[in-house]
Amino acid sequence: MTKSPDDDGTAGPGLPPARGRWTDLDRPPLNAAGLRRGLVREGGLWRRVDVVQRTGSTNSDLVARAEAGTAGEGSVLVAEEQTAARGRLDRRWTAPARSGLFFSVLLRPVEVPVARWGWLPLLTGVAVATGLSRAAGVDTALKWPNDLLVTVGGEERKAAGILAERAGDDGVVIGVGVNVSLRADELPVPTAGSLALAGAVSTDRDPLLRGVLRSLEDWYGRWRAAGGDPAASGLQETYAAGCATLGRTVRAELPGDRVLRGEAVAVDGDGRLVLATEEGVQEPVGAGDIVHVRPVAP
């Protein structure tokens, strides 16, 4: 909830108490102790869960901890508010305090060839979509490579984003931001959405976060056990089944100011999006900004 310059959390005579930054009853704080009890267990992936009130970026913080040797695999860092969060292509991203899930995890998939680590953002997308569908009761779809879409008012809106960064030679930090309770007047851009606006049956962030992290533990375990093979682990098939980009005409804005347009026909074994271009060739795209081209009205 955005605080006005003169809002000190008090009310004038005869008025109900004002809702200041930390008194929004619709956005209670996360229960750090409860999250640890529900997620940290012997033999499990999650070893440590820290919740901070405010930070610049959970990804930056966890990368720094990993490189300093103070965080191991299975570390989870959650923030109630981020002031310098980043998305792909170094885009800035902000949201009101306690209005979403803002967290990063540290993974060290040493058994998996580095060439297959590119699947980790897609794996995380599948895990987040699965966890939120179960815990929030809202339909979700994946936009290649790292966005989660919900439907608001009959339109696709971005409700979550994923950012993966290397942490030293053997680590990857994956950051996730999910808009949970954002109201229409709080959306940063018209194309954004939230679980609440998509009709979620629950916006209680504690069970939502537990559901997402348990789903991530499950998918990461399958993928790692298969040596990172996306087909053997079932990841490639599951991602394709939930990917709203496939079957659509898209515009790929590629490095070097190159633009490619075509139909997204597959996600290949390297996690790249395959486009069937107007020239009749199939071209894989491994990096770039993908825009779903809306059909032209007759």
From TrEMBL:
Sequence segments annotated as region (Disordered): 1-27
A matching Pfam family: BPL_LplA_LipB
InterPro entries registered for this protein in UniProt: aa-tRNA-synth_II/BPL/LPL (IPR045864), Biotin_CoA_COase_ligase (IPR004408), BPL_C (IPR003142), BPL_LPL_catalytic (IPR004143)
GO molecular function: biotin--[biotin carboxyl-carrier protein] ligase activity
Every BPL/LPL catalytic domain range: 34-224
PROSITE patterns: BPL_LPL_CATALYTIC (PS51733)
Enzyme nomenclature, EC number: 6.3.4.15
Keywords, alphabetical: Biotin, Ligase
Keyword Ligase: yes
Official protein name in the record: biotin--[biotin carboxyl-carrier protein] ligase
Species: Streptomyces prasinus
